[in-house]
Amino acid sequence: MRIAIPVTQGEIPNHLGHGESFLIADVDGQKILKETLVPNPGHGPGGPPPVFIARSGVDQVLAWGMPAHAGERFHEMGVRVQL
After folding, report:
1. Are 59 and 79 in contact (CB under 8 A)?
2. DSSP code at position 17
3. 83 Cβ partners below 8 Å, 6+ apart?
4. For residues 38 and 56, is the Cβ–Cβ distance under 8 A?
5. pLDDT by residue (tens digit) across 13-41?
6. What is the CB-side half-sphere exposure of residue 82 using CA atoms within 13 A?
7. Is the pLDDT reported for residue 54 higher than 90?
8. For residue 56, what are the contacts with CB-CB under 8 A and spacing of at least 6?
């Protein structure tokens, strides 16, 4: 499973799109296999965040402060959201 978590200066921000980066972790059961920190593209190339995250092969997003349209976009692309 691949999980994405928004991050700003080592903390989880209060809004999905306001994170400076996304920590993307490949997980097998309870074991983290790989972690990658990738910059948030904002609404630029590769964005907006839901599209960027889905294109990164993410299965689940762990975040809060997500607008309804972002949650709907994740759902459309088959990415689960855990608030």
Report:
1. yes
2. G
3. 63, 64, 66
4. yes
5. 988 888 899 999 999 999 999 999 999 98
6. 9
7. yes
8. 2, 4, 22, 24, 38
Q: Which residues contact 12 (CB under 8 A, 6 or more apart)?
A: 5, 6, 19, 63, 64
pTM: 0.89
In sequence order, what are the residues at sequence separation of 6 or more whose Cβ sits closer than 8 angstroms to the Cβ of residue 32? 25, 26
What 8-state DSSP symbol labels residue 4?
Answer: E
Sheet holding 2-7, edge to edge: 31-39, 21-28, 2-7, 60-62, 80-82
Tokens of 55: 């294109």
Q: How many CA atoms lie within 13 A of 65 on its CB side?
A: 11
